[in-house]
Amino acid sequence: MRELTCTMITTYDQDHATATTGFRRAGGEAIGRQSQTCLRTPAGWRVVAAHVSFMASPAWPR
After folding, report:
1. pLDDT per residue over 22-34, tens digit each?
2. What does CATH list as the number for 2-54?
């Protein structure tokens, strides 16, 4: 389970979007960021690029 914060979804047109969020795993101190770039295809929305990383120091937004 993860606690999400500062989630933002940005659309660029009807077929392109990005999503970013900060997160912390339940019971953990490590803080992470996740981003996804999405593209609408004839088969539906697909994630075409993604990134997940953890920050070295806990600068968690409060």
Report:
1. 998 888 778 899 9
2. 3.10.450.50
